[in-house]
Amino acid sequence: MNLTIDVARRILEASKQRAKELRSPVSIAIVDSGGHLVLFERMMSPYGWATGNISIAKANTAVMFNQSTDAVAQWGAGIPGFASSMSEMTHGNFIMAAGGWPIRISGATVGGIGVSGGNAPGRDDEIARAGLGALEAMAPAVPEQPPLSSMPLQSPQPQSPLPVASSQSQQMQHSRPYMQPTPTYPSMPPLNDPSRPLANRGGDQQQDVPAKRPDAPASTQQLPEQAQKEENLKVENLKIENLYNDQMQPYTQFNDNYSGGQS
Fold first, then answer.
1. C-alpha to C-alpha distance for 108 and 151, rounded to whole angstroms
2. pLDDT tens digits for 195-254?
3. How many domains does the chain contain in total?
4. Which of 2, 94, 107, 134 is the most exposed place for a label (fewest CB within 10 A)?
5. Cα–Cα distance between 186 and 201 in angstroms, integer?
6. What is the CATH number of the domain that holds 134?
7. pTM of this structure
8. Residue from 45, 19, 1 nearest 99 by CA
9. Closest to 65 (Cα-Cα) out of 38, 45, 86
């Protein structure tokens, strides 16, 4: 952002108006951010030529350090040889005296103003700050917002209720269209469920323990189902074998008697 001639002229006119009110003819210099002279006016013409160079030096010093020349004079006074060395390096465009201020627009330094020749202590600084006050009048006004009470209230639009699962799945499909919904599976029962029998320690699979039957022998009440079937099969085979032996006993006695008679 650059310092235009119109803005510089408004600052100079505001400083001149304050100088006339104080009846203090001064020299006013305005430079840009590079220290180049933009506007200059000496109110005390034809005398007071020295105030012209001093006002230009004040404007350059304010731009050089981006602060008022009064502040530079306060901390620069404690540095031996600071004023003389700076004045020599800048070819006389450095001075430690009140009356110079940087010109800032929207927080950026675009130039500086220097005033010299005031007829009382502090007059130079006051006239320079009056010129900077013109920038505040040029700033655009912030539009006033209407109060909240005057704004019409909008009734909320009714929304159709959606199930939580369907809304989540729709949101997932919109956010990640390349992914399919994750299927849900029934949860497994806990391992230490008291309603289920304990697993057999000798095998990998669980076996249900059969309930006790009143007609079963006491020795077979605690057997598993497979062992019970084998035991029942052995009992049946034993019964059949006994029945067969009973039926074959007369024939065995007859054969024994017959063979004994022949001998």
1. 37
2. 555 545 444 444 454 555 555 555 545 556 777 788 888 888 787 777 767 766 665 665
3. 2
4. 107
5. 27
6. 3.30.450.150
7. 0.53
8. 19
9. 86
